[in-house]
Design a protein that fits this description.
The complex is a heterodimer of chains A (251) and B (315). Chain A has 251 residues and is an alpha/beta fold. Helices cover 37% and strands 25% of the residues of chain A. In chain A, the strands form 2 sheets. Chain A has a 6-stranded mixed beta sheet with strand order 6-7-8-3-9-10, with helices on both faces. The longest helix of chain A is centred in the C-terminal third of the chain and has 18 residues. Chain B is an all-alpha fold and 315 residues long. Chain B is built from 15 helices and 2 strands. The longest helix of chain B is centred in the middle third of the chain and has 28 residues. Chain B is globular and about 60 Å long. The chains are: A alpha/beta (251), B mainly alpha (315). At the A-B interface, helix 2, helix 3 and helix 5 of A face helix 8, helix 9 and helix 10 of B.
Chain lengths: 251, 315
């Protein structure tokens, strides 16, 4: 059974049709990438899948339950996490506190008014574990806003991973990061996903090296429709998809 | 270590004021205790959650009128009971107002809270048979821990038992708020202040947490208001007026909302500054406006930033 399944999603903004009958499924163990030119509807699709936007028609099922429009908080509790294209952090919190917020959510301890956060050994241990996976162990006490851009990106993703989700949706996880650091970040992400036990990864990505280097399956979008949904080899073999989505021969 | 020492010195300093033989200054400390507690609540809402209320005086007035009703109308003089009922009244009134207000942020939240504050002011002002209208309601001398202190005159009562009772209440409120802001709940509130969108994606129910912060702020406001009216012996509608809410925000900015103790310092400086400036000129509001402008421009993190380097750095 698919872990995440979207069927016949249509999304209108006024008269503009951003998604036109998109269907997509992600099974446990899969790393799926969504590709497409600007305006293809990639981010809209991720917004629909993560409850930020409600589809005009169609269904989104996560672990067999309808989740369209239920909102990110309930999705996070059910086991779906997301990171954003632009770095999305808590600038005034330390890196440790940023991860701790997600850990508290996972443990259901966020509403504890009288407990001492500093004395919660389980939260502290979880924060250390996640920080270690992302190479942030020595930066836990630094305010997030003072971290280098690459570390901010890692922290953003680390806080999503700290929720212990079953599936994670990554919106351009390597955007704004130097070419040299892109593969490093992806190695960290994939390694952390295995360690944490994340069952599936769905990413939106423009960098074809990353897409073809890590994906089990690629979904190509164009003008709000699914142009192809196949393996990396299948995409490589489809000249029309390459011309439409990538716009140049693949290296 | 230095911070703890400074806190201990400040506490001892405040505790010895009644023994210095300057009764007037001791009575000036009483509104400081009340405002200190109310501002701890307001700062939870603004400094820690990022919601600036322009109607916090509603809760201060609610506490004041609860004290007036309990003592004058129902003859209940036990201050512990009055405080408890004030806190409950703040919860009862705070639930519907909070549920509506926390759906909005920034200026919309501020305007809505202002509107509810003015609604409450109008209610107090117009419903004469219930509230005494513009004359307000008397607040009788309460019993403290069951003791009525019949041998003490009003000033002796205020700068004696009531002074230390209110001081202890401020200390307890400070400890409670200290625990709250350092709890998991406090961290979640700060995450909402920093980035509500991100907070939702890591599972923090932003609206719900804002609502809880609103209720807590209301409870602290009501408790502060209950203390505030014992020295004056009168609960009047101006306690709910928007200028009173403005004064509370003034105190917060003056002391510094980025620091835990900033609001308490702000309340202290405001009370004594107001007393000094009012004795010098009738244009004291003009002077206060200028002071606020100077603080905002040169000390955006409030006077606390002069004392605490971490507040200066924005920690």
């Amino acid at each position: 059974m698919a872990l995440l399944e979207a069927k016949n999603i249509r999304k209108f903004y006024g008269d503009f049709c951003a998604l036109d009958g998109v269907s997509l499924s992600v099974a446990a163990g899969e790393f799926v990438s969504i590709i497409g030119p600007n305006g293809a509807g990639k981010t809209t699709l991720v917004n629909v899948l993560t409850g930020l936007a409600t589809p005009t028609t169609g269904t989104v099922r996560f672990k067999g339950e309808e989740v369209a429009g239920i909102g990110p908080v309930r999705l996070a509790r059910r086991g779906m996490a997301r990171s954003f294209q632009l770095v999305n952090i808590f600038p005034g919190l330390t890196a440790g506190e940023t991860i701790a917020v997600a850990v508290l959510s996972r443990l259901g301890r966020g509403r504890r008014l009288w407990a001492s956060l500093a004395r919660d050994a389980e939260v502290a241990a979880s924060v250390r574990d996640v920080a270690e996976l992302f190479g942030l162990s020595d930066k836990l006490s630094r305010p997030a806003r003072t971290l280098p851009q690459g570390d901010k990106k890692l922290l953003d993703v680390a806080s999503a991973f700290a929720l212990g989700p079953e599936i994670i949706l990554l919106d351009e996880p390597t955007s704004g990061v130097s070419t040299r650091d892109k593969h490093l970040i992806m190695e960290v992400l994939v390694g952390a996903a295995k360690r944490i036990g994340i069952k599936a990864i769905l990413q939106v990505e423009h960098d074809m090296d990353i897409v073809f280097g890590y994906s089990d399956r690629i979904v190509a979008l164009h003008q709000g429709r699914v142009l192809a949904d196949t393996t990396p080899a299948g995409i490589r073999a489809d000249a029309q998809v390459i011309a439409t989505v990538v716009g140049k021969p693949l290296s | 270590m230095i911070g703890r020492l400074a806190l201990a010195v400040a506490t001892v300093g405040v505790a010895v004021v009644p023994f210095l033989g300057r009764d007037y200054y001791a009575t000036l400390m009483l509104p400081f205790f009340g405002y200190g507690i109310a501002l701890l609540g307001l700062n939870l809402l603004f400094g820690y959650t990022g919601l600036l209320s322009f109607g916090h005086a509603l809760f201060v007035a609610l506490g004041a009128y609860t004290a007036a009703y309990m003592t004058s109308a129902f003859g209940i003089l036990h201050f512990e009971v009055i405080l408890l009922v004030s806190a409950l009244a703040a919860l009862v009134i705070g639930v519907p107002i909070g549920l509506l207000c926390v759906r909005y942020v920034k200026i919309y939240f501020g305007m809505l809270t202002l509107a509810f504050g003015m609604l409450f002011y109008s209610f107090l002002y117009k419903f004469y048979h219930l509230t005494g209208g513009d004359e307000g309601m008397r607040v009788l001398r309460p019993k403290l821990l069951g003791q009525s202190f019949p041998t003490l005159d009003k000033v002796e009562f205020l700068i004696g038992p009531f002074y230390f009772y209110a001081l202890v209440l401020l200390a307890v409120a400070t400890v409670v708020m200290w625990r709250i802001v350092r709890s998991p709940f406090g961290l979640c509130l700060r995450s909402i202040r920093e980035n509500p969108n991100k907070a939702e994606y890591v599972g923090v129910s932003v609206r719900r947490y804002r609502f809880y912060a609103f209720l807590l702020a209301g409870v602290f406001g009501a408790v502060g208001g209950t203390i505030l009216v014992v020295p004056t012996g009168l609960a009047d509608p101006l306690l709910a007026y928007w200028t009173h809410s403005g004064n509370l925000v003034f105190m917060l900015v003056l002391g510094g909302f980025a620091n835990f103790f900033g609001p308490i310092l702000g309340a202290f400086v405001f009370i004594f500054l107001q007393d000094s400036v009012m004795s010098l000129t009738q244009y004291w509001r003009f002077i206060f406006g200028a002071i606020l402008a100077v603080v905002v421009i040169f000390f955006p993190r409030g006077l606390m930033s002069l004392l605490d380097p971490r507040a200066r750095a924005g920690a």
